[in-house]
Design brief:
By secondary structure, this protein is of the alpha+beta class. It has 5 domains: 71 residues, no CATH class; 48 residues, Arc Repressor Mutant, subunit A; 167 residues, Ribonuclease H-like superfamily/Ribonuclease H (Nucleotidyltransferase, domain 5, 2-Layer Sandwich); 65 residues, Beta Barrel (OB fold (Dihydrolipoamide Acetyltransferase, E2P)), CATH 2.40.50; 31 residues. Helix content is 36%, strand content 16%. It has a 5-stranded mixed sheet, sandwiched between helices. A 4-stranded antiparallel sheet has the order 6-9-10-11, with no helix packed on it. α4 crosses α5.
Length: 449
């Protein structure tokens, strides 16, 4: 145990770097150096974290100043494995969990507050978790004697099953400030090949559909696609895309990440091999990050033998080589590739106004005047937020849409029905005079003015 503590102390000393060798610092220099150190990535033993906070580094520095290397040795808590809650509250928490093992910590706290057994906000989640963990009750659902049978599985051919998932990535510097990125990946089950993978600024349905479209263009049509239960994957647009392309969309069961264990293992590989070696401070845009990511993906990951493919009939089973052995079994896009963009268009219901316009994202568009007062679908390219055309509710093409140009409409000739009469025509003047005479005759007869 002592050697582990010494290694941790040496790690902390290496993080401090030049701070540990400086006898004095100028005013404000300490804060700027600590801020720079907190922006670096570190390989922390027994942890998935790669960043350290400024407060943590500052605390280590002052401990080093007072006690030297001994001040950097982790100290175990004196109250470890002990609980400061009253015995009756501990019993209430344990009874609440044993009564219904599916109860979350938040529900246990809420139940005790509602029943008046504890005061509001007096129980912390970490305290309840430590107590449950001490009594082997920390799992959300305690495993029963009849455990779920789990077995390793693998598709026979590439393209039989794809997985889709999102991994939370680091925060990078962009022209618009620092932003967090998300790694969206579509992976083939049989070959472990990343059909397409890219960093995005969000994990919405639009980002997921964009990655899926790129994967289809590069790797052909899969038979099945398994995704998570998040709202982005439950979107109607993704379901429509898969239905029209005849891809069977499968949702993994809640609270069972084992069904996507290969992708979870993939995320671990990305963190340990790519993110730990990435100099985040050298990244200034999403394009720069993805450029480095795609080089690593194609030159490193796809070209490295995969331990999960040892049973493949290859001497060195890399993901790319394994995928290429099944090229004859993969369904190509064919003619679908020419109109693939249309499969990913979104459709929004709109009612055409009396002036032949409709609105989208705060902008007005014009359509043919014959569709006034009708309910239609506005078809848009979601990633670019571009309005394309309109369809009927039966998905029949009706016509294109154009941005509203009021200046052009000021000189535009209006189309009128054939039986309409021009207000300045002789026919109009004759009808007005005739109606006037009839009204005057009626007033003379009735005595009205």
């Amino acid at each position: 145990m002592k050697s582990i503590f010494n290694s941790m102390a040496l790690l902390r000393l290496s993080v401090l770097g030049s701070l540990a060798s400086r006898d004095s610092l100028n005013r404000g220099e300490l804060k700027s150096i600590i801020k720079h150190l907190s922006s670096q990535t570190y390989q922390i033993p027994n942890s998935k974290r790669v960043y350290l906070s400024e407060k943590t580094i500052e605390r280590w520095y002052y401990r080093w100043k007072v006690k030297g290397i001994e001040g950097l040795i982790p100290v175990a808590r004196n109250d470890k494995n002990t609980c400061q809650l009253l015995p009756k509250i501990q019993e209430a928490i344990l009874a609440c969990k044993r009564t219904n093992p599916a109860r979350s910590i938040q529900m246990i706290i809420h139940y005790l507050e509602v029943t008046g057994q504890v005061q509001k906000d007096s129980l912390s989640r970490s305290t309840v978790h430590r107590l449950l963990k001490k009594h082997a009750l920390s799992k959300r659902i305690i495993e029963s004697v009849e455990k779920i049978e789990r077995r390793a599985f693998e598709s026979q051919f590439a393209g039989d099953l794809w997985f889709g998932d999102v991994m939370h990535g680091p925060t990078i510097q962009t022209p618009d400030g620092r932003k967090k990125v998300y790694l969206v990946t579509i992976m083939d089950d049989a070959s472990r090949l990343a059909c397409h993978s890219t960093f995005c600024f969000n994990e919405t349905a639009i980002s997921i559909e964009f990655v899926l479209k790129e994967a289809l263009l590069k790797r052909g049509l899969p038979k099945k696609l398994m995704v998570d239960n998040g709202p982005a994957y439950r979107s109607e647009s993704l379901q429509n895309v898969c239905a029209r392309l005849k891809i069977r969309l499968i949702y993994s069961k809640p609270y069972e990440p084992q069904s996507k264990g290969k992708l979870e293992r993939w995320h671990g590989t990305v963190r340990s091999q790519f993110l730990t070696e990435l100099d985040v401070q050298a990244i200034h845009s999403l394009d720069e990050l993805n450029a480095r990511w795609w080089v690593w993906l194609e030159k490193k990951y796809h070209q490295t033998p995969h331990s999960g493919l040892l049973n493949a009939e290859l001497d060195h089973p890399t993901p790319l080589a394994r995928f290429q052995t099944d090229l004859l079994n993969i369904q190509p896009l064919g003619e679908t590739a020419k109109k693939l963009d249309e499969y990913f268009y979104h459709r929004i219901k709109r009612v055409i106004k009396k002036d032949g316009t409709l609105s989208y994202e705060g902008k007005l568009f014009e359509v043919s005047f014959e569709f006034v007062d009708q309910t239609i679908y506005l078809v848009i390219d979601a990633p670019t937020q571009t309005a394309k055309y309109i369809e009927s509710l039966e998905h029949q093409w009706l016509g294109y849409v154009h941005p509203l140009d009021k200046q052009a409409n000021n000189h535009r000739v209006r189309h009128r029905p054939k039986n309409a009469i021009n207000v300045n025509s002789p026919e109009k003047t004759f009808l007005v005079e005739k109606l006037y005479q009839q009204e005057m005759k009626r007033c003379n007869t009735t005595g009205e003015k």
